[in-house]
Amino acid sequence: MKAKIYGVFILVEAFFMLIASGVALYYNVHSGEKDVVSLLASTMITAIFGFILLSAGREKAKKGDDRVKKIDNLTMKDSFVLVTVTWVLFAIFGMLPFVFTGAIDNVTDAFFESMSGFTTTGATIMNNIDSQPHGILFWRSMTQWLGGLGIIVLFLAIIPALNKKSNKTTLFAAEMSGLSVKKLHPKMAVTARHLYIIYMFLTICCVLAYWAGPMNFYDAVCHALTTMSSGGFSTHQSSIGYFNSSYIEYTCVLFMIMSGINFSLYYFLSRGDVKYFARNEELRWFVGLLVIMVTVVTILFYYAPSVSTIATDTSAYPAPTFESRFRAALFHVVTIVSSTGYQGSYYDYTLWGGLFLFPTLLLMLSGSCAGSTSGGIKVIRWMVCLKSIRNTIRQFLHPNAVFSVKISKEVVSNDILLRTLNFLFFYVIICIAGVIVFSISGCDFQEGVFNTVTALSNIGPGYKATGPATTFSDLSVAAKWLMSFLMLMGRLEIYTVLLIFSPTFWNKK
After folding, report:
1. CA-CA distances (angstroms) from residue 439 to 1, 70, 232, 481?
2. So what's the pLDDT on residue 325?
3. Distance of CA 18 to the CA centre of its chain
4. I want to staple 448 with a disulfide (CB 3.0 to 4.6 A). Which of 28, 271, 333, 438 is the partner?
5. What backbone phi and psi angles, to 5 degrees, belong to 362?
6. H/E/C letters for each residue in 142-209?
7. Which of 434, 317, 340 is CA-nearest to residue 122?
8. Pairwise CA distance, residues 162 & 488, whole Å
9. Which pTM was predicted?
């Protein structure tokens, strides 16, 4: 049964790879680009492996093996393994087009680029994006769109009848393990379908909005795929800054904010439940965070250039007008907090000076709303943590009183509270371990911190040698594999991957 599920997953990937092959064929006919054969070969290899696994799964089912009956209902343990292995398989097969077209000449870099795509991290090793063929750049954008809401959510949305007896909630929860699953419908498959319809609708709206500006249709589609997925891959080395358009930047900001909002809220909004949307406490905190941080960064643009010990390169600052400074601050805050990682007209925060580093790192850690396509710790976890701290202080002052953590007037259970606090603890421990390994591999302390956080929070840009103006191509082989692993951990919100490495997890008793 598991082989059958893996086979279906890989066939779905082959289908989307075939779409990228169609794009490559179009540009082969009209522009003479040569990536169509490589993409078709990648599609065929992926599809063949998918059919092999699908056939193997059906063969086992026919034999009536008792073990097959036991996994008809997927346990949480089965789901953790299935989800983790699926994401790794997608990255492995997803790197084939990069290798076969010659866009990337080694497995390490190709796997890094593929994992960065599917996890919507957006960190890249490509130094020649503008010279790449259209088909490979479209596939690169498609990897992020597929990973945006999650591969498992896509699977449940389009193939709900693969195994009617399977517990789909365990799959959903394993991919989004940090918080409890919010159902929009009693059937999890219907919930997934609702989410993906909203996702596709917003992506189409984003395409049309970009296309109405200076983007051509191809660029509009590719950037819409990576905007709504909070991915950040672009068809140009200069990213959004390539278009040198305030319209594009403001449009991009709007859709990045939308990608950072819990998608279930859009469902209730579409049903006319505006009050539910407005009452959501996490959304209010998220908007408040944006307002505060945009104000802070805008003020810093006025203050920092006048302090020689702070400003590293004033030529990297926006023009000395309020609109330019406000737009630069708005774009910077939103692209980081949404974990998209685009670069605007003014983007290189490594040259703005040390005063900008802490707000940027804070935004990387924060993330947007749970249930969105964004990475990071998520606003709701910070809310739970801060309210728990407040209650602890109040408990000291009023020992006999009973306090509870409430989010949107609903009490947070002790189980979720403990899971949230443990998540923050694990996040810190993993960050410390990551910085140590990066330091051993040759990165300085600041680079190590930013590389770890940007990978674990699925942001994209790092600092100095891996900053927004550069790529990750110069990292050591070990550092690239470490970042790939951190990207996966961050996208599956730590628990799913961490449990697999626990000896207790594999204990049959």
Report:
1. 43, 46, 27, 15
2. 94
3. 23
4. 438
5. -60, -40
6. HHHHHHHCCHHHHHHHHCCCCCCCCCHHHHHHHHCCCCCCCCCCCCHHHHHHHHHHHHHHHHHHHHHH
7. 340
8. 26
9. 0.91
- 385, burial (CB in 10 Å: exposed 0-12, middle 13-18, buried 19+): middle
The helix/strand/coil state of 411 is strand
Q: In the chain, helix, strand, coil percent, each to 5?
A: 70, 0, 30
Q: Where are the alpha helices (DSSP H) in 342-476?
A: 357-366, 379-397, 414-440, 445-456
Question: How far apart are alpha carbons 473 and 150 in whole angstroms?
Answer: 27
What local confidence, expressed as pLDDT, does residue 169 receive? 53
Two structure tokens written together for 487: 């990207």
- pLDDT band per the 50, 70, 90 thresholds, residue 69: very low
- Amino acid at site 298: T
Phi, psi of 182 (to 5 degrees): -100, 110
Supply 477's token pair.
């082989």
Tokens 């990897």 correspond to: 143
Per residue in 294-345, pLDDT (tens digit) is 999 999 998 887 775 555 567 788 988 999 999 999 999 999 999 999 999 9
pLDDT value, residue 163: 45
One-letter amino acid identity for 482?
L
DSSP string, 262-328: -HHHHHHHHTT-HHHHHH-HHHHHHHHHHHHHHHHHHHHHHHGGG-TTT-S-GGGSPPSSHHHHHHH
Could you tell me the CA-to-CA distances from 370 to 26, 198, 202, 392 in Å, in that order?
38, 16, 18, 25
3-state secondary structure of 141: helix
Question: What does the block give as tokens for 424?
Answer: 């923050």
d(CA 48, CA 133) in angstroms, rounded, equals 25
Name the one residue in this structure whose structure tokens are 């408990």. 395
351-375 confidence digits (pLDDT tens): 888 889 999 999 999 999 988 999 9
Query: In terms of C-beta distances under 8 Å and separation of at least 24 residues, what long-range contacts does 441-446 make, across chains too?
Result: 441/475, 441/476, 441/478, 441/479, 441/482, 442/476, 442/479, 443/475, 443/479, 446/357
